[in-house]
Design goal:
Subcellular location: Nucleus
Helix content: 25-40%
Largest sheet: 5 strands, parallel
Strand content: 15-25%
Bound molecules: magnesium ion
EC number: 3.1.3.16
Mean pLDDT: 84
GO cellular component, one term: nucleus
Main location: nucleus
CATH architecture of the largest domain: 3-Layer(aba) Sandwich
Cofactor: Mg(2+)
Order of helices and strands: EEHEEHHHHEHHEHEEEHEEHHH
C-alpha cells in the first residue's frame, strides 16, 4: 500500500502540495507541515473543510480517520503574524482593481445583443443546475449579490470570517429579505461559496433565507473590443430558469466589478469594494446606505428603468417612489 498521503492546502489564493505525510500521521503533524509550507502558525490555521465526525478535528486525530481522498484539497484561512501588522499599512494595488474597467455604455448594449452570447446563455439555462435552498416567493423582487469585496474581504488575513465580514451584513440581508429574494453569485466554486456563507453565518441566520447560490459555472465569456475576453455573470440565466418569478424588471445585482453585469447593465449596481477589513470595518457604511436604496426602490415597477450608477443621488433626492430616470 502506498504509505504517502498527498494533500493540497489552498490558502490566500495559492496551492501548497503536502507530500510528506502518511495516513497514520495526525492533524497536529499536518499543521506542522502547513506551518513549514506557509509560515502560518498552527494555532492560527483554520482548516475549513477538514472534518472528523462532522466537527473540526483535534490535533490527535489520525489523517486516516477522516476519509480524505488522495489529493484532497484543504481550504485554509489563517494569518501570518507579520501580515496582521501589515494590514495597517497603506493598501497595495491589487490586480483586480485594475480589472474593474468601465465599458462604454454603447458597447455594453452592443455586446448584450450579440446572438452568440444569447446562445451561450440559453445553453447555461438548460445545462446549469440550480439547487434551491429555499423556494422563490411570489411577488418578491430579486437581489443578486457578489461575495468577494462586496460582502466579505477575502484577501485580508484573519482568524475568523466575522473579522472580514462587511459591517451590517446581517442587518442588510434581514431588511432586504422583506422585499427581495436573495441570491448569491460568486465567480468561484460552489464548495467555496458554501464555506464562505457558513463562515459568515449567512447560511444559518434565522432572520432571512437565501434562495440559492450560483457559482462560476453559470458565467459566460464575452469578447470586448477593448479588453479582450472577460468572464461575466449573465442574469439571463436566472431569468431563464425562473421566468415566472424573475425578470429584468424586478432584479438588481450588486457587484464590485462592473464588467460582471456587462450582459445586463441596467440591472447592475457597482458597490464600492470592501477591502482592508481591519482598517475599514469601523467606517464602512455601504450596506447601510444600500439597505435604504433597496427599500426606496422596492415599489418601483421596473428596476431597469433606474440609473443605478446614481443610486446615492436617488437616495438624497426628494424623488417619489416610482420615479425613473426617464421622468
Ligand atoms: Mg467581487
Amino acid at each position: 500500500m502506498d504509505s504517502t498521503f498527498k494533500l493540497v492546502v489552498k490558502w490566500s489564493g495559492k496551492e501548497f502540495q503536502v507530500e510528506s505525510l502518511s495516513p497514520s500521521d495526525t492533524v497536529g503533524t499536518l499543521k506542522d507541515v502547513i506551518r513549514k509550507l506557509t509560515g502560518v502558525l498552527p494555532e492560527r490555521q483554520k482548516l475549513l473543510n477538514l472534518k472528523y465526525k462532522g466537527k473540526t478535528p483535534d490535533d490527535e486525530v489520525h489523517l486516516s480517520a477522516m476519509n480524505m481522498k488522495p489529493g484532497f484539497k484543504i481550504m485554509m484561512m489563517g494569518s501570518l503574524e507579520e501580515e496582521i501588522e501589515a494590514v495597517s499599512l497603506p493598501p497595495e494595488d491589487l490586480p483586480d482593481v485594475v480589472n474593474d474597467f468601465d465599458i462604454p455604455e454603447g458597447e455594453e448594449v452592443d455586446i448584450c445583443n450579440r446572438e452568440v452570447y444569447l446562445s451561450k446563455i440559453t445553453k447555461r439555462i438548460s445545462d446549469y443546475k440550480i439547487v434551491e435552498r429555499n423556494p422563490p416567493r411570489p411577488g418578491k423582487k430579486l437581489l443578486v449579490l457578489d461575495i468577494d469585496y462586496t460582502l466579505f474581504d477575502h484577501r485580508s488575513p484573519a482568524e475568523t470570517g466575522y473579522e472580514l465580514m462587511r459591517p451590517f451584513l446581517h442587518e442588510f440581508l434581514t431588511e432586504a429579505y422583506k422585499d427581495y429574494d436573495i441570491v448569491i453569485w460568486s465567480a468561484t466554486s460552489m464548495k467555496w461559496i458554501e464555506e464562505k456563507m457558513k463562515l459568515l453565518g449567512v447560511a444559518t441566520n434565522p432572520a432571512y433565507k437565501i434562495t440559492f447560490y450560483v457559482d462560476y459555472l453559470a458565467m459566460i465569456t464575452v469578447h470586448t473590443p477593448k479588453y479582450g475576453v472577460v468572464n461575466v455573470k449573465p442574469l439571463g440565466v436566472i431569468w431563464g430558469k425562473y421566468p415566472e418569478y424573475y425578470s429584468t424588471k424586478n432584479t438588481i445585482m450588486f457587484d464590485d466589478i462592473r464588467r460582471n453585469f456587462l450582459m445586463n447593465p441596467s440591472n447592475g449596481l457597482r458597490i464600492r469594494p470592501f477591502r482592508q477589513a481591519h482598517m475599514n470595518r469601523k467606517t464602512d457604511r455601504e450596506l447601510l446606505k444600500l439597505t435604504k436604496y433597496l427599500q426606496k426602490i422596492s415599489k418601483v415597477e421596473d428596476l431597469s428603468s433606474l440609473d443605478h450608477r446614481h443610486w446615492e443621488r436617488y437616495l438624497s433626492d426628494k424623488h417619489q417612489d416610482g420615479d425613473s430616470k426617464n421622468e
